Amino acid sequence: MTDAAAGERLLARLVAARWDDSEAELLHETSRRHLASEYFRRKALWANALGVTHLWQFADIALAFDPSMETDPTWLERLDAAVGRPLLLPVRKVVIDMFRWASLGNRPYERFPDLDDPYEPMVQVLERGGEFLPGQAGIELPIASVSYGQLANRLVQPPFAIDAATLARLDEKDRIELEQARARIAQRERQSGERLE
Which of 12, 100, 117, 185 shows a CA-CA span of 20 to 30 A to 109? Predict the structure, then answer.
């Protein structure tokens, strides 16, 4: 039995994400970096609990939890249609397992009640600026990279709070820094124009 309602909720969030929005990428750079790090921490914990530690960062943990789980292609088809293009392959792979995980409902948490939702941080990464790119031993966000890290290190990493208030504080810091940077650029351009007169 799958949880179709959870899949619909996930789809609604992803459809509303700020895809192809360079301004969002800049305004949420710090929070996205922290969310990605928390995603890798949670992914490591689930991979370890499910015994899929080899290449844990790429593990399809929904399939590891329930190998009989079928992939419904209509979720991704509907998301691609809403975004207006196919997602990048690395993002596509993560999103496919997100939908599988959502379809499991509460079953994983009944078995592992101490573990948090592994995909919630990555959902918020996508909501706050769209896709990521594959990097050297990690992922690339527009300004910064986030490494996968070693499994042993991720397993002991302290959790990062991803509540709205914490993320808003990080976003405000980015907003102020972006405004200051733009003001400095504008000032230099004015000064350059004055020297040319």
Answer: 12
